[in-house]
Amino acid sequence: MWAPHLHSAQLGLSPWHNGQTGEVGNHTKPGSRSQDGRRRLSPARVGDFRRVSWSGGGAERAPNGSPPVASSTEKKMSKVTDLFDVTWEEMRDKMKTWREENYRNSEQILEVGEELLSEHSSKLGDDIWIIHEQVMIAALDCGRDDLVMSSLQELRRQFPGSHRVKKLTGLRFEAMERYDDALQIYDRILQEDPTNTAARKRKIAIRKAQGRNAEAIRELNEYLEQFVGDQEAWHELAELYINELDYAKAAFCLEELILTNPHNHFYYQQFAEVKYTQGGLENLELSRKYFSQALKLNNQSMRALFGLYISSIHIASNPKASAKIKKDNVKYATWAANQIKRAYQMWLTCK
């Protein structure tokens, strides 16, 4: 879903979507320690650079046997480089990875980015500006207005006329729910650069945040007339139509996405869900076919598997269906049920 307030272009993060947390990339053994006793990062651990003290001290061991966790005072005073065996270069590279892979792990970005800017700013070179931007948006997510303003002021001093920096100012206004001020900034950007897609998307996001979905749909349709290849815009329009219960138009948007992304199982699955919601024998049969295709593209999708099961069940129980159609769909439903049961048995075995 397109987040309506400050969830926008986080250095490559789509203006229409939230991000995701990522995993640590490291070549050391999980849980190993360096010679000075600092714990190394685990290569498969989600949410790296956590504020946890591994040096002992007065920390208590968790009941489940996990390593000792620092007290709240230790957490506030500890630095990433003190807690983990990492250099400032590794921290900088981790920030770059989070940007390039569109992670939105804002708390960890603040931990690492704040220390980079306060302790190692002279070493960062030109990277300092993109880190300021990254930290500012993470600070908006976490409600750290002090960091928002400090990074924004640095960017304004360095790039006084930049549309990118003006857009960041607009994001701050959005976070404060000062939508009129944000709209004025985006309008000024568009007057100077009518092709600025980010500003147009932010205006639509504000309409959505204000609950003015009809206006958001109208402006998004106008946007797509000029930028017909914007796949994220098509998906956002589909979501808006779904929210308005206009399933026929939502299906049209998803068909556009399937045409341009024929190997993306998610679009087949969402289209199938829309057709299932519309109901009727014809739509149910179409729904089952698209759930099947989604499952073919991603055989690990439990959502598509459940969709195949329930659509087949409903077709088999539809009085308008012929005997052959009912028989075939009973077979499909039985197969899907067996696959679901098998998946849960495997899951229980692995627990």
Automatic annotation (TrEMBL):
Concerning SUPFAM superfamilies, the annotation shows: TPR-like
Q: What is its main location?
A: endoplasmic reticulum
Q: A Pfam family matched by this chain, by name?
A: TPR_EMC2
Give a Gene Ontology cellular component term annotated to this protein. Answer: EMC complex
Q: Where is the EMC2 TPR-like domain?
A: 167-275
Q: Where is this protein found?
A: Endoplasmic reticulum membrane
Q: Which InterPro entries match?
A: EMC2-like (IPR039856), TPR-like_helical_dom_sf (IPR011990), TPR_EMC2 (IPR055217), TPR_rpt (IPR019734)
Sorted alphabetically, which Gene3D superfamilies does this protein's record hold? Tetratricopeptide repeat domain (1.25.40.10)
What is the membrane topology noted in the UniProt record heading this document?
Peripheral membrane protein
Start and stop residues of the TPR repeats:
163-196, 231-264
> Can you tell which superkingdom this protein's organism belongs to?
Eukaryota
Bias (Polar residues) ranges: 17-34
Which region is the signal sequence?
A: none
Keywords, alphabetical: Endoplasmic reticulum, Membrane, Repeat, TPR repeat
The segments labelled Disordered in the record are 1-77
Q: How does it assemble?
A: Component of the ER membrane protein complex (EMC).
Q: Which family does it belong to?
A: Belongs to the EMC2 family.
What is the purpose of this protein?
Part of the endoplasmic reticulum membrane protein complex (EMC) that enables the energy-independent insertion into endoplasmic reticulum membranes of newly synthesized membrane proteins. Preferentially accommodates proteins with transmembrane domains that are weakly hydrophobic or contain destabilizing features such as charged and aromatic residues. Involved in the cotranslational insertion of multi-pass membrane proteins in which stop-transfer membrane-anchor sequences become ER membrane spanning helices.
Name this protein carries in UniProt = ER membrane protein complex subunit 2
Please give the organism. Leptobrachium leishanense (Leishan spiny toad)
Q: What is the lineage of its organism?
A: Eukaryota, Metazoa, Chordata, Craniata, Vertebrata
